[in-house]
Amino acid sequence: MYAQMVKTDAARVRSLDEMDPVERAFQERVDAGQKIEPKEWMPEGYRKTLVRQISQHAHSEIVGQLPEGNWISRAPTLERKAILLAKVQDEAGHGLYLYCAAETLGISRDQMYEQLHSGKAKYSSIFNYPTLTWADIGAIGWLVDGAAIMNQVPLQRCSYGPYARAMVRICKEESFHQRQGYDALMRMVKGTPAQKAMVQDALNRWWWPSLMMFGPSDDASVHSAQSMAWKIKQNSNDELRQKFVDQTVPQAKYLGLTVPDPDLKWNEEKGGHDFGEPDWEEFFNVIAGNGPCNAERLDARKKAWNDGAWFRDGLTAHAEKAADRRAAAKIAAE
Amino acid sequence: MSSEWPLWEVFIRGQHGLNHRHVGSLHAPDAEMAINNARDVYTRRNEGVSIWVVRSSEITASAPSEKGPLFDPSNSKVYRHPTFFDIPDEVGHM
Question: InterPro entries annotated for this entry (chain A) (predicted)?
């Protein structure tokens, strides 16, 4: 999940009877599956929760370019390099769709950047792990984008129109991301024993962080219940995690890999896999800023922003000059 | 920090002689850069043959609260739809 543990400000979910008429009308529209649009009335908690979730989601797309960007100059073939470039460019695009969706809720782009760069805003825990080998790039497409798809497909039905529409665009493009990753791994497992071992090693390192992407169990979370009542969230974290495991295990088997979980086994009765518990202490540590790459990611992001300042200023200066020239020409013509 | 670039709304004409359709928005310093950025953000997969951009601040929108006064009057005018009129089968296709 690209947005993890989003808070709602709710102490508990209130029933329709407890709401004033305006809020009740809003909740009834949400219950009826209608989309809420930017200028319409919405509860302040709904707006704030969406800002948190969409901006966190956008930051994840932007920071998510960094682990993969690390391998653009070292891709094994020109074709793989072009594919990876296209994928990383898509991530930038996804970030932009989402920032625009968040801006419709009254937060500015600069405010969101400031929150990211100051470390106030979060992004997905998954991007704080290093990409050590080329197999990691395949594993990210297969597992990380696979987990993201699990989360993003239901978000297309989110009650907030701009977010739902951004998700439709993103989901269309995301499938390419997952397939190119799996395709790279299919090629590697048919290679030398060393290459196959590299793929197994990548799975060993990315499996648990991928399961953590969905966040800890939220069956008892009031924030999750409120987000579901608002139809910002459609499924529980555990539901999505279960779906992801059930989908991914046969894919690992096809590659001839072993999922690094001794407790993993098929449970005929429930029609799904039983599996072990991720290390939530590690998760909370990474979220708190102490993962292997938190500092490196944030520094790279800030450096990119600061190094681009002269270029943004240049474009602004050019736009102002051109506008002045047009104004002068208009006066001269009159 | 430099001042924030204005917001532009982006409209794309798809391949098949359709209308330009709103696809989203982006920030850019001027119209020319807005078109360039729109190309990269919204047409990476052949989604269009033409792009329009317009500054968001130039758009005048109806207010959600006006929905009733604006659109309710047409509800009662069902005769505007061809299905309102029963034409006998013998008349043939009409």
Answer: Aromatic_CoA_ox/epox (IPR052703), Ferritin-like (IPR012347), Ferritin-like_SF (IPR009078), PaaA (IPR011881), PaaA_PaaC (IPR007814)
Q: Say which DSSP state B40 is in.
A: H
Domain residues for B46? 1-59
Contacts of A312 in chain B (CB under 8 A): 2, 5, 29
B33 found inside a domain:
yes
Query: What are the tokens at B42?
Result: 């919204």
Q: Is A309 in Cβ contact with B30 (below 8 Å)?
A: no
Q: How many CB pairs under 8 A join A and B?
A: 52
For residue range A48-98, what is the model confidence (pLDDT) as tens digits? Answer: 999 999 999 999 999 999 999 989 999 999 999 999 999 999 999 999 999
Residue in A109, A313, A322 nearest the CB of B27: A109
Query: Tokens in use for A118?
Result: 């100051």
Cβ neighbours for A82, distance < 8 A, ≥ 6 positions apart: none
Reported confidence tier of residue B1, pLDDT bands at 50, 70, 90: very low
Number of domains in chain B: 1
Measured in residues, chain A has a length of 334
Closest among A149, A174, A135 to A255, alpha carbons compared:
A135
CB contact under 8 A, B29 and A316: yes
CATH number at residue B45: 3.10.20.520
Chain A residues with CB inside 8 Å of B40's CB? 89, 93
Q: Which of A119, A144, A142, A118 is nearest to A129 (CA)?
A: A144
pTM confidence score:
0.92
In a domain, B49, yes or no: yes
Give ipTM to 2 decimals: 0.86
The partner residues of B52 in beta bridges, in order of sequence, read B11
Residue B40 lies in a domain: yes
Whether B94 is in a domain gets the answer no
